[in-house]
Amino acid sequence: MRRLLLSSIFVLLGLFALCAGVACGAGSGGEGRGPDAPETEPAGGSRGEEGVREAAGGETAAASEPILDEKWYEDSDGNYVPDFIEVANGFDPEKNDCAPEECPGAAEGIDFYTQPRNALLILDSSGSMAADDGTGRTKMQAAKEALLRYSGVSPVLFETGFMVFGHEGDATEAGRPESCEAGGEVLSPIGEVDSSSFEETISRFEPAGWTPIEGALNEAGRAFSGKEGEINRVILVSDGIETCGGDPVAAAEGLRRSGIELTIDVVGFGVPDDETEQLRDIATAGGGEYFDAKTGADLDRYFRQQAEALSETWDAFACELRNGFHDTICDQNQCNDATAFRIPDEQRKYEYDSPEYRALQDLSNRISAGLEERQRARDEASARANELFDQHQRLQEEYTSAFREVYGGA
Length: 410
Prior knowledge:
The chain has two domains: 2-99 and 314-407, no CATH class; 115-308, Rossmann fold. Helix content is 52%, strand content 10%. The chain contains 14 helices and six strands. The protein has helices spanning 2-26, 48-55, 83-88, 106-114, 139-150, 154-157, 176-182, 195-202, 213-223, 248-257, 276-285, 296-308, 310-347, 355-407, and strands spanning 117-124, 159-165, 184-188, 231-238, 262-269, 287-293. The protein has a six-stranded mixed β-sheet. Strand 4, helix 10 and strand 5 form a beta-alpha-beta unit. It is elongated.
């Protein structure tokens, strides 16, 4: 249905463009550009009043008197349509009335479809994850269940990998060196997480040792090697602060300065209020956000929200499509009124091929050329939008199916 709607929009755009070309090209009452009228160049940007004066046969290098009344040379927004015509049609000549609406997140939305997307899930497996999550399960059980559900959706959105830390050694002083030196271990390289095998992956470890967050983040940097210029994201889940003497905040800052486009989000799972500061600082240093999950239900809700966040990307993308349609129609309306009505009406006051007549015809040609150049740019954007929509539709169908299967609704 969406594909049919979009196709209809682009057909309409084509028809409007064709009609505009006929109307604008007709210029003065259907006579078009006179046989002796000079060729015009496409208007490539805002030229303002000075450009319109030149286009309409205005003052010459010898500073002669303008041929037409001064109002025909006033063009504040540089689209070649005189200000008084825009005012008569309810437009504001001081701004671009055809400017697109604001689309929050539009840049991210377009990037989402045009750039590779990678995510690394990092889970704390230190000894404290054996504690109760408030529902009779251990924190580890709750975290694994939440991650297992998310693994049914995440690979649709990102090339997803998985890392664990704190899984070596034990929580005693004797086990601390082994646990801290192990740092983080990538159990599934980026792109290899999928719901069919992930359950086996997360069954390989249980709560064990200490909390080497710095070591995990350093290993994360290596996991993203070769993915510079792509969209990269880390989601780190931990129930406590660094306990191996490292500086995870500095590690997060270092990753952001490493040349890898990377965002680090941190989920504190059952973290005491007096220990959340460091985890919040890691998220801030990593350009991401901190989420406080008090219980296993909170953690599951967080991952569901991550899956639902794609709808915002789609909304931004749809906003961009609407902008293209609105911009085209608005621009054509301004052009048509000037070239098909206002200028021909003024030309009838003068003899054919008189200086005034030719000056008005030159102005009409300039307005039409400017519209045609802007329309060519829109046509190219529309072709790209069509490609992106195909990609969007495939992704949305796959995502919706996965989301319903995992979370029971969309």
